[in-house]
Fold this sequence. Notes:
3-stranded antiparallel β-sheet; 24 helices; 15 strands; elongated
Amino acid sequence: MNDLIPFIPKADRSASKNMIxxxxxxxxxxxxxxxxxxxxxxxxxxxxxxxxxxHSGRILLNFTKIxxxxxxxxxxxxxPFASQCRAYIRYNAAANVNAGxxxxxxxxxRELLRVFEGKNxxxxxxxxxxxxxxxxxAMASSRKSGNYASTIGTLLRPLAKFLRxxxxxxxxxxxxxxxxxxxxxxxxxxxxSDERRGASLPSQEALDALPEAFLLxxxxxxxxxxxxxxxxxCAPSRVNEIFALPEDCEIKPLVEGEEGYMLRWAGxxxxxxxxxxxxxxxxxxxxxxxxxxxxxxxEAREIALWYESNPDKLYLPPDCSxxxxxxxxxxxxxxxxxxxxxxxxxxxxxxxKIVPVxxxxxxxxxxxxxxxxxxxxxxxxxxxxxxxxxxRATGLKxxxxxxxxxxxxxxxxxxxxxxxxxxxxxxxxIQNNFHHxxxxxxxxxxxxxxxxPITIRTHQLRHYLNTLAQRGGLSEVEIAAWSGRKxxxxxxxxxxxxxxxxxxxxxxxxxxxxAHGAGKISINAPVSRTQAASIIGHGHATDxxxxxxxxxxxxxxxxxxCLQCTKHVCVKGHDPRHLERVAMALEHARKSMxxxxxxxxxxxxxxxxxxxxxxxxxxxxxxxxxLLCDPEIPDGSVIRLxxxxxxxxxxxxxxxQGLTRDADLVLRHGLGxxxxxxxxx
Length: 681
């Protein structure tokens, strides 16, 4: 893929003219999605650019008013809206090489289009403004519940910024936000909450059936499927991460006799690849599951390795090697593929539109024969889309994949597993055998019936293990790391404990505190500000006292203005030279005051401001000096001057923005006086 050439709009042209240039630029100069891309097509096939683990189907972008359903595309986007959307998506794909398929962006475009049509407006991104964006989010909220509207708003925000930055929409807001709060899972009480938590966890019947299925599985397909789910039960994982496991995924202890067993794990949802620790109690199961999958997929890896060296030639099983380059009968084809019924070979030939030729057998009987090169071409075309790469994110090759299988590994009788072609284990294989009620692996192994089906979803095991970890007392950081999560806040979604259970856990920990030497939690009584000031730990010393500001929480708003700050304190008698330094500072301030007076007499620029500043400094130093010399104030007393007339950085910003209230209000100064609320000064 070529490097992105940024689109640079012309400032002196209108938004509509810039948009025309932008569309032309994306159409003619960008090569993302291929140089042969038909820019004006209703559907773009972007499968070569994107990959989704576990999905072998094509990745399509449909510029239509509704999401396609049952093969029906629906009405396409109108112009100029359609070309604008296509240009934006192609440009973004070039600028963000690591971004995923932009189907959600098209979903946001559909919401915008509904707003335009609802207002009888021409759909044109050049006319986007905050009102249209707000309406799109509101309409999305009325159509679908949950976080759908917030998702639409999140997708529209970069669009609005792009339109404004590139001068493609005059009225695009500067910093638009959707303003919709994200709805998080609330741990409720009652029947509905219990039902929701129960739906997120596997049923007890499913938990009992899983180990039985693991032990009963005899066919290679059942062995692979039951072992994959067994791995999901060993540690909280996403099934797509198992699809990216290499054959040599086991990390055994470096030192003999050392405990510990981990797997080389591919992260997902933005989490990095890492070594996933398997609990000791589950280590034997994980090892056995890996061994079973590896043994059942050995032949598939051998076929993949052959195709890596011979990408244009058909792999032939050893007992079919003599058929290479020969005219093939339907029986020969069934033997090569692995069909147990010859009729299945005929069905496949017709589905691939291979034209047979006529021939005769040794007895002179007429036969339909197949050219070897025709069969070879059609079978080789069935190699996985990114072959020889199985996973783009990790660079894993198909010949190194733990979960590469023979084509139709889980097929019906008569159309058994192929002997000459491979495929990658995917979501459909898991869904058809565990999610679907009947038939599935449990019914096939005699563990359930049509009237009493057993199902399980892979995410339920993740919820189950996370809930067990919460019950066991693992920290949030440990649970997130074990589960492969970037943000520990995501743990809450997988914690299916009831409120009563959490409360009981807290009470149990409270009872255990004394037993561990922690003792009971002590509650400190409230204290006055004076008491707090006497025990506070000062941040650092200054020439005139101590600074109490906590620099760990925020930077100083009164930097180099200690004398004007209420967080600056003096302790009388703490430093023998304290009074001397205050007197010296006062003397220097008075000298500066005289210089400022002379400047005012000569009408120097800025002299009046310096005079005012030194007046304030002298007044506060005189107050401090008088307090330190007062015999009635005992040594050890904490002295803090009252609010001065100087503004902090925050206060000055409020003043500049006109956020203060009374322009005529003057601060009162002096020791012991209460500062009034200040206004516009």
